[in-house]
Amino acid sequence: MTTTSESRITILALFLIVFCLSGLGCGPGSTADKDSEPTPVGTSTEQVEDLPPWVGRWMLVITEQTTDFHPFLVQIGEFNGQRALREVDKAPGPSFESWKMTQVVFREDEILLSINIREGVTMNFVGELHGEAVLGAFFMEGELDVTPARLVKTSATSMSEIQTPDKTEGTDAFESAIKAKDKITAFQTFIKDHPDLPLTNSAYFELINSAVAQNLPLEKVEEFTKNSIDSSKRWGPNLVPETLFQIATLTKSSPEYRSIARSALDQIKEIVGEPLPDSYAERMDLLESQYLLSSDSAEDQQSGGEKLQTFLVDRPFEINGLIALATHFEKTNKKEEALKIYSKLAVLPGLSRMVGAIPNLDGDEPQTAIQKVESLSEKKGDELTRYLDETYEKEAFYFVEPQDQKPTLKENRKIPLLELFTGSACPPCVAGDLALGGLEKEFPSPKIIAVRYHQHIPRPDPLTNSDSEARFS
Known about the structure:
- By secondary structure, this protein is an alpha+beta fold.
- The chain is built from 16 helices and 13 strands.
- It folds into three domains: 3-167, Lipocalin; 174-396, Serine Threonine Protein Phosphatase 5, Tetratricopeptide repeat (Alpha Horseshoe), CATH 1.25.40; 410-472, no CATH class.
- A hairpin with a 5-residue loop joins strand 9 and strand 10.
- The longest helix is centred in the middle third of the chain and has 17 residues, at 298-314.
- It is globular.
- The relative contact order is 0.06.
C-alpha cells in the first residue's frame, strides 16, 4: 500500500466504528428487512441523510484482465440510524470457500472492506462511490500489487443468479478496438463510452502505445498520459503508481517521449516515497536502465548498459532486461555479446515463447530469438547446433556446482528414488524439470534414480503412457 493510502485509511479509522464479522452472514435470498437481519458487518458514524445512493444489493467484482470474479453479494442499508453492510451470499465452489469478510469501514463516499481469504492472509478492497458503482482496488495487506475491483448494484438475491467467473463487460468492444485500422479513434471512443470499466485503464495504455508508434506530437501523447493518470485516480490512489509504471514502460525508449517517462518515474518516487519498496525498486532499476540506454548521450548509454548488467546478475531471466541489453549490444556493434543473450533466449525452456518477436534495428520485420541467432552468428549447421546445446547446458543448469565442488557421498548408503510428474506442454512444469535435471548432473545415476511420468497436461503429451497415468492416479 502506498504512503498516501496508508494515511488515508488511518484517517478513516480515527472517525469510524468498525465491527468485526463473527459468523453473521445471511443465506441466499435474504432481504433488507432490519427486523429480521442480524447485526451487520460494519457501520458508519454518519447519519442516514446521505444513505440513498448506497442503499441496495451490491456485487463485489474483481477483474483480472478480461475476466470478472464475483466472490460476494452484499446488502447496504440503514441499521440503528447508521450506514451498514451485511453479506447476502457468497460464490459457491472451492475458490471462495475460505473467504470471510472481517471488517467494513464507511466514510462519506468511501468504503474499506477487509476479507480474510485464508489463515493469516487478508485482502482489502478500497473504493469510492461514482454514480451506480463503487470503483476501487483489491490488494493484499502489506503488498503493493493491485487489481481493479468494483461494487456494482444488482437486483440479484443470491449467487445462483450470477455467472462467475464471467467475461468482463466491454471485452468485445475492447478487442474490436485492438483490431481497428484507426486504433487512436477506436480507443478514444471506447474510453468515452466506458469510463467506469476496468478495461478503460488498459484502453489508455493501448492508446498511448498507438500514439507513440504513430509518432504523434509530444503534446498529444502528454494529453493521453495525463488523462490516463486522472482515470486511474478514479480507482483510488493504489492504482496510480501502476499506471505510471505502464506509462514509463511505453515511452522510455522513444527519444521524442523520454520526458514523459522521466516525469512518470519521478512521480512514482514522489507518491510512494523513498526508499522504494523492493518490488517497486526492482521495476524502477530496470526502467531507469532502459531510459538511459535510449539517450543520445554515449555516457548515458554506457551507464545504462552497466546498470542493466548489474541488474541482471540477480535476475538472469528478466526478459525485458535481456532484450534491452542485447539490443544495446547490437547498436554498439558488440555482436558476440548480443549473440550470447539471444542464444540464451532461444534455448531456455519457455523463454522463446514468452519473448515473441523482437524488433529489428533496421526497421525490417521483427525476428524470433532463434532468427536473431542465425543472423548474427557465423556458425552454421551442426556447428551452430553444438553452440546452442552448450548454451543450454550452461544457462539452464547455472545453479549446478562445479565438478570440483560436488559433495562426497557415503559408502553403502541407500539410493534415493526421485519421481517427477510432468508434461511436455506444461509451462509451470519447467521449473521442476530443470531442478530434477540439475540433481541428475549433481548426482549422476546410480547415485540417485530419477523417474519422470509424463501426463496429458494441459494438452496431449506423446510421452504419456498407461503406466505413467496409473502411477499418477
